[in-house]
């Protein structure tokens, strides 16, 4: 089975999550950071997994563009959607707002994989914002391995 994993990330949490997810899937896997590489057509894959992270309520525009450009194919493909975000219970809402309710309804698996706040990577503005959001003032590394495992378990194996 051929699987395509495409994702958007700003500071690497979603990339880490995508790699962890790839480790739980069998067969041939291609991973694409949409900000760095142009994505192949989903038509060439048996399973497509699309992820991004949330900033001020929005998922990366390259993720939205990928889904818009491939909308008709994705509506017919085995599909999984995931996000990394601080407000983990809002994952479905974020995905629906960004990608459309029809795509979300069509997905075999929806994942909320946790989040990271890495102060060493953020600019000063983002540090200030996160200090308000998180209240701890410290970097936090909270990717949820069990959420990634549960997501992978809902995907077709062959
Ligand atoms: C400036 C800023 C704004 C954020 N806004 C939101 C938000 O609106 N909702 C949310 O759930 N998480 C929010 N987050 C949390 C990020 O989605 C989280 O840190 C995520 O792990 C980032 O993943 P990435 O490194 O792959 O970009 C925000 C983080 C930052 C730094």
UniProtKB/TrEMBL annotation:
Cofactor: FMN
GO molecular-function terms, A-Z: electron transfer activity; FMN binding; menaquinone-dependent protoporphyrinogen oxidase activity
Domain Flavodoxin residue range list: 4-140
Pfam families per UniProt: Flavodoxin_5
Matching SUPFAM superfamilies: Flavoproteins
Gene3D superfamilies, per the entry: 3.40.50.360
PANTHER family xrefs: PROTOPORPHYRINOGEN IX DEHYDROGENASE [MENAQUINONE], PROTOPORPHYRINOGEN IX DEHYDROGENASE [QUINONE]
Native organism: Alkalispirochaeta sphaeroplastigenens
Classification via PROSITE patterns: FLAVODOXIN
BP terms from Gene Ontology: heme biosynthetic process
Protein name, per record: Flavodoxin
């Amino acid at each position: 089975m051929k699987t395509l994993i495409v994702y958007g990330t700003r500071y690497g949490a979603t990339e880490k999550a995508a790699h962890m997810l790839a480790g739980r899937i069998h067969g041939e896997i291609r991973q694409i950071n949409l900000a760095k590489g142009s994505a192949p057509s989903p038509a060439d894959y048996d399973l497509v997994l699309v992820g991004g992270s949330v900033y001020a309520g929005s998922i990366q525009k390259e993720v939205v563009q990928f889904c818009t450009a491939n909308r008709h194919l994705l509506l017919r493909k085995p599909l999984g959607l995931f996000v990394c975000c601080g407000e983990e219970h809002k994952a479905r809402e974020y995905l629906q707002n960004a990608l459309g309710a029809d795509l979300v309804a069509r997905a075999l698996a929806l994942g909320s994989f946790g989040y990271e706040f890495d102060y060493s990577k953020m600019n000063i503005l983002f540090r200030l914002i996160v200090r308000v959001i998180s209240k701890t003032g410290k970097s936090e590394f909270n990717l949820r391995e069990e959420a990634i495992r549960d997501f992978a378990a809902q995907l077709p194996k062959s």
